[in-house]
Every structure is written in structure tokens, then in C-alpha cells.
Input
Amino acid sequence: MKKTAAILTGALIVGGIGVGSQFITPGDKALAEKTAEEQNLKISYEKAKEIVLKEKKGSISEMELEQEADGWVYEAEVKSKGIEYDFTINADTGEVTKMHEDDDSSDDGSVNQDEVKVTMEEAKKAALKEVKGKVTEAELESDDGQAVYKFEIVAEDGREAEVEISAESGETVKTEWEDKD
Output
């Protein structure tokens, strides 16, 4: 069954994961600020940057503004003394909801097959319950050490979403909607 899931995964992959969130480079700061303003978020890009750097001195290597199931968050990576740290900041409250040292050396993207308890088909059904539409891409991968199925879905209204389903529990891990210009 596990080999079948791996084969199906390979067969369903159409291309790389599309952009389900807004990648923020220094040149995109205005776009992040615009999104924060349009969504009536209390924490701006600059304020989120201040919050992160107050928690950990260093340099921000990337920052994303994402919509998750419970609201908008900034996700940031900070490099400090050769170590990378991941942060999640609530875009309404400014609360740091996650901070951990990113150990990419142990997370090479390979999936621990012992964690896979849900089939690709079961995960696809769960993803389509989350976002009604058509799956255009699917893959099984390790994300922060957790086996997840990632699905790109074109919703019935034409918007695109990326839905992550836990390969262990079948629960929705994250849903991100792509911004339309």
C-alpha cells in the first residue's frame, strides 16, 4: 500500500508547488503592506519585522504573509550566528505563536514511511472537503519533519489553494489561498 501511495504521488505530480502564499522580498514590501491593509490586519510588515528581530537578533532571510485556517500570519526565517530560526506571528495580535530552530539537515524532504497511515486517495478527499474544486497537483513530502500530502486545487470560483493534509492523521494541516492581482 505504501509503494502504491508513492507511485500515485509520482504519477500525480504535474510540476512544482505553486505559490500559495505571498513571498516577501524587500521589493515586495509594498505588496505585503497593501495586502495587510486590504485584510484590515493590525500588524504591518514593518511591525512584524520589528517583533521578530526583538525576539532574535539577526537578519530576516525571508518572510511570507499567509492565510491559515485561523487567520493571517507572517512566517519569517531569521539567520543568527549561522543558525536559522522559524517564526510565526499572528497578523492581528502581533503574538509570536511559533519560534523554533530550523534544523534543515535532518529534514531532507524524504518521508518516514512509518508515519504514513492515510492513502493519497483518502487525503485527496479530505483536501476536497476543505476546498471544493479540482486537484491539479499532489505530492507526499516531509514538511518540518511531518509527512504531509500537498494538494494544489483550483476552487469552483477559480481561485487557487494549496491544502496540506497530515499523512498520519488525515487532518488538515494548512490551507493557503493564492492572491489574485
